[in-house]
Amino acid sequence: MLNQSEYLNLVVRYLNAPQDKELCSRILSFRSESAENESYFKEMERIWLFSSAADRLSLLDPKQSEKRFHLALGRPTHRTGTLKKWISGIAASFLLIGLLLVWLKYGKSVEIVTAKTNQNQTDTIFLADGSKVILAQNSELQYASKFDNGTREVRLNKGKAFFLIAKDANRPFSVDVADSRVSVLGTSFNVNLSNTTIDIDVKTGRVQFSVNQASGSAMLTAGRGLSYSRRTKQTTLRRAVNPDSWLTKHLIFVDAPLEEVCRQVGSCYGVQIRLKSGEQTSKKLNGTFEHEDLEDVLKILEQTYNLKIDRRGDEITIEP
């Protein structure tokens, strides 16, 4: 377990050398441990970008500093053991002090807000740039009270949200989701984060999805989506299907197989629908549901597919 100063040292080393694979791996692990760690990293990253002093200090060469120090003392420069470590330590200390000074100047100006919803509760969040986020039930979003560093960044810690992003070509908008990032300029899209997958569905505009800085990215246009497995690290591109149905309660099915219908209905109504393992059906569904009660939707599915449906609260089991 790292202490506070070691956290700061790790973050600073990474920000000074983001191409370092080992540091990148350690930072990803640190950020994924908790929402507090992610917030801490984002704030330090923001300070790093803010600080012109940090830019100058990051260029400090400990070897050159040591050489100049030796010349000032009138000593040979070949004694590099202990003094080299001492000079390097001074350089790192200056950098940390610079960051802390910038923190004192800017750190209190931006508040990190956490919005949470409970069961059967949604929330509409208006961001400082004019964007709107509609948070589904049992979800959590973190965002800054204002965007003042040239970027617009939020984080979806759990659950599902529909984003309506205000266009701003000079400030890209990004959503951090687990160890992945969704980047846009101005668009509307849905993000669903579960323990096993990340689902992205684009309604308008374009969205870029990337797992981390070292990996490639996928570009999605309106009507397209993807599913990313957090276990296998595999991305599956697909057609976006009813991306905002949980919000509008409007479902459209065209030649949809039972498995896809179950997934979409479950997502729309916030229930878990389990199709009994090993059971298959070739029948496809064509139809539209608009503001229908879940019970009515289940009755239609029961008649269409000749199903046996067992519902216990929010858990539904379907047997063909």
Tags for this entry?
320 residues, alpha+beta, Jelly Rolls, Phage tail protein beta-alpha-beta fold, 13-stranded mixed beta sheet, 9 helices, 18 strands
Task: Give a quick rundown of the structure.
This is FecR domain-containing protein. This protein is of the alpha+beta class.
Characterise the protein shown here.
This protein has 320 residues and is an alpha+beta fold. It has three domains: 4-109, no CATH class; 112-239, Jelly Rolls (Sandwich), CATH 2.60.120; 249-319, Phage tail protein beta-alpha-beta fold. Helix content is 36%, strand content 32%. The chain contains nine helices and 18 strands. The strands form three sheets. Strands 1, 2, 3, 4, 5, 6, 7, 8, 9, 10, 11, 12 and 13 form a 13-stranded mixed β-sheet that branches. A hairpin with a 6-residue loop joins β10 and β11. α1 crosses α3 (35-50), α3 (35-50) crosses α6 (81-106) and α4 (52-58) packs antiparallel against α6. The chain is elongated. It starts with a helix and ends with a strand. Keywords: Membrane, Transmembrane, Transmembrane helix. Residues 115-208 form the FecR protein domain.
Structural class call reads alpha+beta
Q: Please give the CATH class of the largest domain.
A: Mainly Beta
Low-confidence stretches: 52-60
In percent, how much strand structure appears in the residues? Answer: 25-35%
Topology pattern, helix = H, strand = E: HHHHHHEEEEEEEEEEEEEHEHEEHEE
Largest sheet: 13 strands, mixed
Helix content: 25-40%
Radius of gyration: 25 Å
Task: Report the total helices.
Answer: 9
Termini separation:
51 Å
Shape: elongated
Question: Any idea how many domains?
Answer: 3
User: Any guess at the CATH architecture of the largest domain?
Assistant: Sandwich
Q: What's the β-strand tally?
A: 18
What do we call the CATH topology of the largest domain?
A: Jelly Rolls
What number is the mean pLDDT?
79
